[in-house]
């Protein structure tokens, strides 16, 4: 029976824990509102207004119609090198009908912020990377902003039509007169998602009622996500896109109403060597950009003929910014430059206007538009000539004063409508580039007070969590040193960009060292052979786990076990996958024995496992058919459910798992509640059911990882059962293995590593909550497995404690949660501190901001929802 003092200590530690965990999401929210603010924008549409003094009306545009074709993830080398399927496009480059560029896509390299940059010419907020995942979100709409789409609509000489990625419909609601959108997240679809676009083209090319046609193809991006840039599907898809380009260009040449049509083909972003995107590697930030029209043959340019040799930097032809599209399209199609544009008119198109005055006017309109942004940001006094004394011009205090000084010098030599020379045009173009670079690199308008407030709340959470842990645990200080060292080392690591990018190595080495420490700490000379064998087996399993997928930034796409052994040998893959399903089948049979008659239990478990296995084979056949050989191919041949859709198959598996989990809880926790072992059986059964769900939501190549996790689990279980694993050691192991499992499956701190391939299993239409849950389970499948495993190990410790002290399990759970909360609160505080201190760092938006988003996912998703929510419920069921 608890004494009053002990009861008070229990209540105190519980309240401290609750307070610490409530403060974590509050700190995250407050910090995020200061770190990811929306930047203020100039309202309304730009207008020509009064003519520029000395220049007259705007120059006549050479084009009046636009076909804008986006090929998602069109990396520059896909178009310009010899190993390319864009043969026809390369022929247009050679004969001068196409002008090629490499466009620079700033991070984050995901679709929504890239489309914002392309259409407005501005630099989107990093928060758009989150909104990009929510197809139902409309807060990111550009309906009220000035874009070249809004300008083309305002011209009133034709309709706007769009076919393809429905991100355009979300960004521009009510803008398009005809549209057919397709979701961008069914990444296993390589064909239908593009066929749905292509089927409209022939008819629309015959219509003359439109002035803007937007096409956005997704198949190439999906192939990249599934098989990488060297996928066998990649070249055929490129040839398909090239054929569509040929169809459109041929129509422009032959159809009279298309004679003044500008055809632009571009990628919204590129991809890295693993086929993903979102970060800032050279491949991800280097999409192709090609302008096409028979009229371009009148512009002579001396450029190397396509194809070009491979280049690891992916910089082919001239490099421009994606934001340069907005002012360039404005000049070529005859409308004002959008108000919030930071792009610079691409000078290669100036020869369209023979008069130097016309060229100068186009540049001046671009300049005045950017000067309006500078004035809005820093006040009109920065451009006031009276403030630009000779001394300030010679020694400007700020970059913006220097920019203003340079502009005063350039504008004073323009001679107000008199003939300007090539030197003035070159100087003005250079000034535009400098202004673009300076304004684009301008620090975000952080709300520093919110940053510090969020930081203070996070530190308060750390203090409360440590106090709760101190009150809950009754261990010596020395036993806490490894845990404290891990938390401290992790926090320090957050301040170095290279360590953040390659975080997996911290967890890999720490886990290996920790498991070796546990082995030698409890080494028993009486069982030296079995102990040594167990240690060697476990450390070997961890080494294989570490090498399964190459992740991080520097070596993404490099050789690993999957690329070197699994992909080239599909039979080995299915041998390991089959072994994994057989192991789960055996574990489920063992855990439900006695609950059902033996023949019925075999029938139910076998049916559930076979349904999951056949779904995974059918999914892989659609996703990567080159892997479905031998054993897997024979499964498809005898599959009784062949003909059923993947959605139906997945729903069958999910419903089967849900019914099995519900039945296990009802039977073992209530019907057999009087049996002392019923709680343990319940958790073991639920752990096996979850494992079947986890491999259903994992990439096929990652399924064998769960066999390796089981080896490590058995190692820890044997030590917990014999009393050689303390609570602090269990919690430390749980944290280490959760992070190790996440990175081993291919996760990283880059947005590009988010796996969406299983996010739509069982879903026919987009539903943000369902897709969010499935995406989380897909990416954190291994981490959640270790939550289940940790609860099982806690129950083992509880049995040992009851046998020795006769105590309940509340203290164990509270101590475990306290340790997990200490680490989570410390990690949140460290990441916030790093983002605050390094907010002007070069890599703030490419390294530290994505890390903050992952920190949010770990803290809110894995810690609060899974470790505390699911883990607490499981422990209660196991009592």
UniProtKB/TrEMBL annotation:
In its UniProt entry, what is this protein called? GPI ethanolamine phosphate transferase 2
BP-aspect Gene Ontology terms? GPI anchor biosynthetic process
Topology in the lipid bilayer is annotated as: Multi-pass membrane protein
Q: Which SUPFAM superfamilies match?
A: Alkaline phosphatase-like
Gene3D superfamilies named among the record's database cross-references = Alkaline Phosphatase, subunit A (3.40.720.10)
Family listed: Belongs to the PIGG/PIGN/PIGO family. PIGG subfamily.
Q: What organism does the record attribute this protein to?
A: Apodospora peruviana
Report the subcellular localization.
Endoplasmic reticulum membrane
**Which residue spans traverse the membrane?**
12-36, 452-473, 480-500, 565-584, 600-619, 652-672, 725-746, 766-797, 817-844, 856-877
Please report a single Pfam family linked to this protein: PIGO_PIGG
GO CC terms: endoplasmic reticulum membrane
Q: Taking every annotated instance into account, which residue ranges of this chain make up the domain GPI ethanolamine phosphate transferase 2 C-terminal?
A: 443-878
Q: Which GO terms describe its molecular function?
A: CP2 mannose-ethanolamine phosphotransferase activity
Protein role: Ethanolamine phosphate transferase involved in glycosylphosphatidylinositol-anchor biosynthesis. Transfers ethanolamine phosphate to the GPI second mannose.
| CDD domains reported for this sequence | GPI_EPT_2
What keywords were assigned to this record? Endoplasmic reticulum, Glycoprotein, GPI-anchor biosynthesis, Membrane, Transferase, Transmembrane, Transmembrane helix
